[in-house]
Amino acid sequence: MQLFVLKLEGARTLTGRSFIPTQPRTSGTSRLIPLVVCIHGASYDSEYFDIDSQHSIFTLGETLQIPIVAIDRPGYGGSTAYPDPKIKNEDLERRCTTFVQEQGKYLNSIILPALWKEFGSSASSMVVLAHSIGGMMAIVAAAEPKKYPLVGLVVSGIGCKSHMHESPNPSHRNEGDSHGSRDSDQADEQQMHIRFNPNVKDRLMLNFPPKANEVLLIDLKISSHTEALNKPVPLGELHDVRTMWQSYWRSYAERVTVPFLYAIGDQDGFWDSSEEGTMQFTEIFRTKSPKVESVVIPLAPHCMEMSLQGTAWLLRCLGFAIECTMGQRKKH
User: Fold this and answer.
1) Cα separation of 269 and 195, whole Å?
2) Please, what's the b/e burial string for 206-242 (b: 16 or more CB within 10 A of its CB; e: otherwise)?
3) I need a surface site. Which of 93, 157, 284, 302 has the fewest CB within 10 A?
4) How do residues 260-284 score in pLDDT, each as one tens digit?
5) Which domains does the chain carry?
6) 79-88, 163-172, 201-210, 213-222: which has the highest mean pLDDT?
């Protein structure tokens, strides 16, 4: 694994980590190989996919000789923030857009083409693997016209039915009120930051079934990484996931034209993991996607990539990426 700094157009920067096999792909003689691009959720950066040797997609990528890139989303790590932090949620709403929509379109138009240009020489196509809020942005990106060979999309830890969603409160937009949007949003950020990054004690106090509780107890070593992994969350993405996502996700999901793999942990504290909820979410992707798969991961929390189920899930993702890439041969 190597850290990278990539200069983007408009004097912007993208940082992250990568593993690229040393043996380059030779035209006409090598197998079809996917470039897997990983996109983290809220309050993490690219390290989410490379916590330690037991919780790392890079370890698996090296074993399978699959090129892997994990980015620091705009506003995380050394990546230039986008949209501009000075732009308020109200300003975006007046433009009939949201934080996630803007960052998803930026991901599609600027970041993913740049990653393909920089790292794509060792691959024949691209598959995007995204978690939580990063998954929302990846869905937006996948629905847009592309300048890179996307052949598959994998998303975990989101959905259409959530415990977080609330109706927007107009009083939060009253800047003249001392209890207006700024104070409220800051309080929301603190609460959501805690919820996205509960410490081990808090996790074990949640209402898990006994067997799930035992699994979490076994995985306590992840707790030593918790503080290091915690990152500040842009207010825009918290506002979006809580108040806006439900109003527009269908318009993007129904335009995704590549195979889609969806997963959620049955102990996810944010999203509905019921059969009804997962079916309601994935059914929209069947509008244009040639293949839609969904799985509820047993005894897995919201951040399943960090759990004891992490390795099995990431192996499944890489298998799906290979399958999507082999589908290229069928087309040609």
Assistant:
1) 9
2) eebeeebbebbeebeebeeeeeebebebbbbbbbbbb
3) 93
4) 999 999 988 899 999 999 999 999 9
5) 2-23+31-162+193-330 (3.40.50.1820)
6) 79-88
Give the CA distances from residue 259 to residues 127, 164, 285, in Å, rounded to whole numbers and listed in that order.
Answer: 10, 28, 9
Q: Report pLDDT digits (tens) over 24-71.
A: 555 544 578 999 999 999 999 999 999 988 889 999 999 999 999 999
Q: What are the backbone dihedrals phi and psi of residue 24, each rounded to the nearest 5 degrees, phi first?
A: -70, 155
Bridge-based pairing of strands 12-19 and 68-71 is antiparallel
**What's the rounded Cα separation, in Å, for the pair 91 and 5?**
31
- 296 CB neighbour count, 10 Å cutoff: 17
Q: Give the Cα-Cα-Cα angle 179, 180, 181 (nearest 5 degrees).
A: 130
Q: Which of 136, 146, 120, 148 is nearest to 34 (CA)?
A: 120
